[in-house]
Amino acid sequence: MKAVTVTQTNRKLPQRGRFWSTAIRNRYLYMMSLPFVVWVFVFSYLPLWGWTMAFQKYKPGKSFFEQKWVGFDYFKQLFQDDMFYQALRNTLAMSGMGLIAGFTVPIIFAILLNEVRVQTLKRFVQTISYLPHFVSWVVAAGIISKMLSTDNGIVNDLLMGFHIIKEPIQFMGEGKLFWGIVTASDVWKETGWNAIIFLAAIAGIGPELYEAAKVDGASRWRQVWHITLPGIRTTIIILLIISIGHLISIGWEKQFLLGNNLVRDYSQTLDLYSLNYGLGMGRYSFGTAINMFNSLISVLLLFTANGIFKKITKESIF
Amino acid sequence: MGTKKLTRGAPWSDRLFDVIVYTVIIFATLITLYPFLNVLAISLNDSIDSVRGGITIYPRQFTLKNYETIFAFSGLVTGLKISILRTIIGTLLGLMSASMLAYTLSRVDFQGRKFVSTFLALTMYVSGGLIPFYILIRDLNMMGTFAVYVLPGLVSAFNVFVIRSFIDGIPYALQESAKLDGANDLTIYWRVILPLTKPALATIALFLAVGQWNSWIDTYLYNGSQEHLTTLQFELMKVIQSTTTNVDSFRGKNMTAVMAQVSPESVKMAITIVVTVPILIVYPFLQGYFVKGMTLGAVKS
């Protein structure tokens, strides 16, 4: 309807004039969007241009044209560095574990919460469950290391109390436990929040389906399996594709805050690696190469996931 | 399909189902709530007494000394000021940019619609990464400024799309009639769209405010040595990092002096509460909104 009014009034004008006259009519819309487009260009697209640093021996203070081009030297250096493979392993391990746990736990939580028949309890639990999402990772990391600490940490106290262990476990100092701790922290912080979408999807399933199942004598297990889960299938797949796209871009915030020197072999992700061995040492070009590798893999994963799911399930995000 | 058999089996398995549901739900609530109550109790308990351990969810020897101590530390006061300031300014700017962009994208007769929309959407999937961004901030001379907190993240594609899908749900006839009354696009945005998108704006405001309040990485990277631009989260981060690891390069001189009076543990807990309380205050009010906003955003993106 709106488009029609525009084209009708312009029908007599030649192509070029039509563009400009529409542009003039759109002037306020341009005023409201162009400044932000420029903004996005500066802060989101210019950093992509910064990738050229990975192919130069970048020296701060020199202009772009004065930099020395070195081709793939920094990538060669990167692929020969053992620490790179360690960081890649850590990144993939933690994001893989995060993907699996961060996906299944909220779905299970949403399904179980939906089965709670006492409405006040349901609402109370849901309100509590979002809470950790809103506190910062700084706070979360502080709380988690307090809970896991060897002196008076509740986890060790409980394990000792039930005589499961004799000596308190040094949770935060044991490299092998680090991936698990990060994953568990993520689950603790985000389960309630991520369950919102699934709860909304479950709420959208027609009650007549459950009624029919009840008449057929299906147990509640069967109702969950045959009605609830298929009912939220599309939501699950769309979110899964998006998460796969973000698989490798897990960043470094949690790892920085929860990690320490004792667990560095397990806590250093690609981003943390670029921070410590790129930025921290003034090796901007080397660090940029790491970032670039990270971003490219991330996009590749997104397209692959999207393609695979499009084939198998006919669901895709683009 | 075997209806009789299932009906007979149902009560037993359904009862087990209920047991599992309530056990898991109650367990989940406990592990979410306990840590916060524990931290609160320790922050309100006498520092020396806390060292003995055994504090659960209520203070054994009530005191406000831990709080008095941390507020005597100048970094915390500055941090509080800057954190409040960046939350207010960052939220307002973010709301303005997201709502304006969302409005223009909702207009099918806008020429630039397709381009702007794609241009924005791409930013959700590709990023230049840590170091190119750092270099950019440095080249723009934004290191050591307050602007670095609110300007780089001004436009968020996700927020724009959430608001846009909300505007799409508003009948276009309202805009048409405003136009007939002689309103231009700017007036329509201000008088028609903004008042009607309040629920979506409230959600986005919450996201933005929480994001601003909780952020410390920008302080760490760009303003780490600027004491007058420190933020609350950054101060807390320094305290937490300096006591979990003995080797540290972060600890400020002032903080060491403070630590001598009460135990580091109590200081940590008190700051944690100070940092968390503002969020707890606004959160029940906005709950209804953000659930709506979350689902809206998910459907569109």
From TrEMBL, chain A:
**Can you list the GO cellular component terms from the UniProt entry?**
plasma membrane
Extract the PROSITE patterns matched here.
ABC_TM1
Pfam families, from UniProt? BPD_transp_1
Biological process (GO) annotations held by this record are: transmembrane transport
What domain of life? Answer: Bacteria
Supply the alphabetized keyword list.
Answer: Membrane, Transmembrane, Transmembrane helix, Transport
Q: Which InterPro entries match?
A: MetI-like, MetI-like_sf
Protein name, per record? Sugar ABC transporter permease
From TrEMBL, chain B:
Upper lineage is: Bacteria, Bacillati, Bacillota, Bacilli, Bacillales
Listed under GO biological process in this entry are: transmembrane transport
Q: Which InterPro entries match?
A: MetI-like, MetI-like_sf
Q: Supply the name of the protein.
A: Carbohydrate ABC transporter permease
Name its cellular compartments. Answer: Cell membrane
CC annotations in GO: plasma membrane
Bilayer topology annotation: Multi-pass membrane protein
Please give the start and end residues of each transmembrane region: 16-37, 84-103, 115-137, 143-167, 188-210, 269-291
Q: Name the protein family.
A: Belongs to the binding-protein-dependent transport system permease family.
Query: Where mainly located?
Result: membrane
The record's annotation in SUPFAM superfamilies points to: MetI-like
* Keyword terms: Cell membrane, Membrane, Transmembrane, Transmembrane helix, Transport
Q: Where is the ABC transmembrane type-1 domain?
A: 80-286
